[in-house]
């Protein structure tokens, strides 16, 4: 080859004659690394340069190809074990999420939850809305009268049920029945009615019933959550939710077709209430009945065509329970009166003007006279005669209330002890 060297890989090296210029030749192995025919597994050599040739930086060391190599087996084993653990954990978590979320595949998805994994509804807390609904529904009934449907709720184990008077109006015992939330039915009969308070009591021919828990409607506050139960538009076992929108909302209802005019200071709620909810319970967050759903307001249309627009009214349970107790005990309800006749409808000044005062009646005994204008009763503002009648009937007979009234230009107060009417 050119350069005066022989091709070699080191095993048959021969001395190279000195060059003609008289300089010492470089060692025979100095160009071995650049030899393309060199055996890569032959022992490596270190090139030692002479003093005259050591002006540049030393060459990088060459790794010994015969040195022992590091094993990758432990690293591969660690990676394999990590991958297996990650796969197992991922599969387990996926199964758990699928089962809990109800999105499992195959037969498990099509057949639903197994007995070991009960439906989520069974795990609702008793004080949740679902828990309250579960507690109350067995005590709610659908009242069926020929051609009509309403609601009611059980108040005693032996079968007494409170409902609205207008639900059972015209009912005959052989046309009255009730249905329970479990689908069972029973015949019923009317125990007594009070058209003016719109409360009626019926007795179901079935014993060992679950009565509702009765609350205190006087303890309600605007904004409290409430549930309305019943059979709106014949959709039995319906529960709707809302809040108390107002208290002591005076209501004058009925009387359009010659029937009685009903007055009461109602609980206003925005829970969805429709035809068929009448007589059903209004329940607080503790599962206690605080009212009897009775009236709705709607825009236009007749009463039978009215639909929910977020304005529903319930008779306070304190009043309904008192009336129902009178009906059960005596077959007749007592109405609370103030002993005066008032003008209903518009007046020239705010308040309820007394047209006449009964001699020796509660108002007369307290010093009120005909022509006086009642402006407040127990702190409640009275704007007209309807307000005064409805608010008076809220109280039980023998209650003493504070009455503020105006006589001419002077405002006065009096304590009036209300009584039951003599009818």
UniProtKB/TrEMBL annotation:
It comes from the Bacteria. Pfam families: PDZ_2, Trypsin_2. SUPFAM superfamilies: PDZ domain-like, Trypsin-like serine proteases. GO terms for biological process: proteolysis. The chain crosses the membrane at residues 75-98. InterPro entries: Chloro_Bact_Ser_Proteases, PDZ, PDZ_sf, Peptidase_S1_PA, Peptidase_S1C. GO terms for molecular function: peptidase activity. Residues 44-55 have a biased composition (Low complexity). The keyword Transport does not apply. PROSITE patterns: PDZ (PS50106). Keywords: Hydrolase, Membrane, Protease, Transmembrane, Transmembrane helix. Residues 327-407 form the PDZ domain. Residues 1-67 are annotated as: Disordered. The keyword Protease applies. This is Serine protease PepD. It comes from Paractinoplanes deccanensis.
